[in-house]
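note to self — DONT lose this again. spent like an hour looking for the file last time. sequence + predicted structure for the chain T wanted, 295 res
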Amino acid sequence: MSTGTDDAGLTLLADPTRARIVRMMRDSADGRVLVGRVAEALGLRQPTVSHHMSALHAEGIVQREKDGRRVWYSLDPAHEERVTTLLGPPPTGSEVDLSRVIDDLTARYRGVFNPETIARYVSDSHRMLTAAGRPALEVSRTASFAASRLDDLSRIEGRAPDRPSVLFVCVQNAGRSQIAAGILRQLAGDRVIVRTAGSAPAADVRSSIVHALDEIGVPLGGEFPKPLSDEAVRAADWVITMGCGDACPVYPGRRYLDWEIEDPVGKPAATVRRIRDDIEARVRGLLADLAEAPE
């Protein structure tokens, strides 16, 4: 078993399921959970939860305590601070105050959208982001997601500068779509609007993806997994899907492409690099098509 004195085991939390399990454990009333209750709450099979708990326990991230025939799991206190850094602080028990976000976006979009529309989009964006649990940087991500949806709405209504818009969609919005978006932003700059979304978004972009992009000089900045919004699809000229099936609604007047690309989740670094390079070649081809497209 790991001594719990280094951060190596915390890389396990890059897996969104393990992150959800640890977050639920940390945020529970008495700081401990049973495998069966976790499985029921998260909609997972009990053997799946047991597998993840065993991995977390082997690395010393969680502790195990027998109580008769039951086994309780709790977060090792030695890891609490670093887990909070990775997963964000626990909820305070009160509603998040989004009034500052609403006020700031009302000022930003003055003359474009009324305060009621701003408030509705902020509230709805927060609901979408927290549907599967409260994420890290909850309020700032809500502000960013609401702003991107309002920008898309402005484009739909013909109020924004006309630039080509590309939406990349995969399942978790933590791997393939983030690679494609990061590379396209790097190559096109402000000439193309780039959006990403996931049919079942993860908690965070995977560290292996961030590292693979950094190797070729592509920053992800403050990007994070986002749920698929109707505005993102309606505002897009091109919709590129990667393994998300029929989750993306179809609207006339858009070009839809499905890229059959291997999922990098859990793959070794060499495989992630190969997937990255495959996506880069496709993005460069897409950029050439965008340049040739009629205005």
